[in-house]
Amino acid sequence: MKKVSIPMLAILLILGACQNSDNEDGNAAEKKNETTKETSNNEELNNTTSDSTSSDSLTLEKMSDFYIGDSQNSQTLIHSFIPKNASKESVVMIPGLGLSANIYESTPDNRNGWAYDFAKAGHPVYTVDTSDLSSAGLSEEEANNSLSKWDSQSIWKRWGLGSATNEPYPEGQFPAEAFDQFYAGIPMQVGSEMSKSSTSNSGGNAKIKGGQQGQSSSGNAIDQGGNAQGQAGSESGNNTGSGKGGNGQSRVNQTEVDNIIALLEKKGPSILMVHSMGGEIGYEVARQRPDLVKGIIAIEPVGSPTNEEEIKQTFADIPYLGIYGDYLESRNQTGRLQAVQTTIDLINENGGTGKVIQLTEQGINGNSHLMMIDKNNHEISSKIIEWLDESVGGAK
Fold it and tell me: What residue numbers bound the domain in which 178 lies?
């Protein structure tokens, strides 16, 4: 008799509980510009973790991973979570620079992430691993270039996790006891020049993929913590809301923008959730294809648009929500907040729908730059979902 390993037995038990007995065999279906791996149909995700604030179950019609892009050099990895009887607009979740889709999917202390919350509320969810991340897959050429990762010490203060390395804020919401798990989940990135630990397989300089997000058009690095250098100016103090560098060129990798546009063309107009430098991607998608963007949720973003004419022509027609946590001054986030407030004011003045949620003004303290994995992440997601129901509309 053939022996069955414990992991395989667990898989079989899960599949046996599914509503459909004719689940697909999990082999990847290859298509031009896309590879899809189906996990199961009607898969029930029961919350068996320590997450006591979200105890009911979620049933998914489909959960899959697939690639968008013309080659391994440019592919973006998409993770989809499609709830059974989905009734609301899709939400595409784009992470900040050097971070992966997992910040939306689960927390380092084993709680459900925002992807779960939004899917449970009836939204099909697509989380994104950008093409510059090792988690999206690397070509042989990329694997031989320098790879980098956020430095484990500098991010404590930079992202509002604590007052210094390994010194969490007493009232902080970040799950500091699970920091090692969080840091283990940060993928290596191709060719960024940030405050990161780096490795090099080639002994040379990192190759930047088409002016990747986090790189200004002049070749100078943009600091996700709040400081843009070079021609783009100081993001923490000066307005970089146009999403352009000082010479008028976009700082965004057009390949990444093209991939998100391709996703929206395939899946339909959607709401974009953007975090930090991910804002640059989302805003550029809205500029180029506003017909595909049903709304924008901006989590402490870089590059919020502030040009009044651009607001009139494009962003006034797109519902816009900005969200900010705590410790803004120590994290150099005040400039970003001012830019988002300007965006909101201009949208509202031109007949659109815009709002800023500054959590501390609602008595919610201690949130970091990574509020989607903070201890009160469900409280924040419920506020976002409520705003979407009111401003974008509940059903499709």
Answer: 1-396
